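User: I'll paste a sequence; please echo it back and then give the predicted structure.

Assistant: Echoing your sequence first, then the prediction.
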Amino acid sequence: MTLPPLPPSAGQRPTFWQDSSPQTVLSGLIAILVGLAGPTVLIYAAARAAGLPQAVVLSWVAADMVLCGVVGILLSLRTRVPIIITWSTPGLAYLATALIGVPFPEAVGAFIVSNLLVVMLSSSEKWLGLVQRIPGHLAAALNAAILLPFGFHLVTGMGTQPLLVGMMVLGYFALRKFAPLWAVTGALFAGVVFSLALGLTHSAAVPLGLTPWVLTMPEFSLSSVVSISLPLTLLAFTGQYLPGFAILKVNGYLPRPAPIVRLTGGVAAFAALFGVHNLTLAALLANIVSGPEAHPDPARRYAAAVWAGVFYIAFGLFAGTFLGLLALLPAEAAAALAGLALLGAMSSSLQTAFRPAGSNLAAAVVVVVTLSGVSFLHVGAAFWGILAGLAVYGAEGVRQAPVPALRPDEEAPGQRVLSERDSLNLSERDSLKQGG
């Protein structure tokens, strides 16, 4: 990948350090905290199904986090797009049952095959280009459906811990009125303070020191490839890459998919030797580092993703310590922080999804099917939601003028679409409202 030269009048492109700000650092930290709380629980569920010892489980988490951080930093710096790499959460949910009775060396062999298949499929621009042709309002509807459950968790947390969550909400909206870029910081601070004051923190031993990686030599079997490799590959694309690129598109970024998928899949094939199933493009977390809360200038938000990678590596090196600290805070505080951090993205996605005249039915179908959580043929609801929405959109198009998909030379709702072909010397601010 080659970046375009800056116009002669633009001067020298700002460095990463110039593009960084306290907001980018905080956004990167929050993205990692939000992204690690849930999937680590799924890793333990999959580990119990496979009967893995604690050392192998920690190796899985540590290698996953460190390599996600490295790849995310490389891609974000190279493309100047806020890219976070993470594990395949749908894949983890599938492994919680699929690993029962499977020797772990065979599972590792299946992980390697799955990631090699991802690399092979990345060479097909036709396959990966499908996401670039998804109408913008349907991509926004998919994004909204992915985010809304986090808003629901915020509300349910208010029911179980009203004082704790209520003070976090109060801190968020108080700062949002006067200093919106620090609103999430206020929620985080209130969550820590009131968790301690109310005695809601859990008492647990926190191990200190580096977490070692445990090498597992792979074994290959046809049954494991069929039952594990193929479903994992499909889930990586339908559950992570498809919504991941769609969310970047909604937030105004159109990076070329092939190089991202190729590098991520290649590193994941190596990571499988240490127990990692898949590395994929983050979907949910992309909202935190690609919105106006990360930086007012969309051309500089990649710095938030770079900082997320730095925190990934730091936490991964001390995975045992990190998991011990994460367990100290109550679940309601983590859920509230995630919901508040993503509230603005929910608002803008819903507005974009239902803005085009005459297309609301297709967007509503995407939201309803995705929120249903339906799973068919081991394929998650996100895939079926966008597929159902496209079917309705196509049927509606027979009777009405179609709404064009977003392209790099057009504008996303509320902000400019960025791609590798764009000049990155943007000084204008978003027209998006702060927090929305």
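The first helix runs from residue 16 to 19. The two ends are 33 Å apart (CA to CA).
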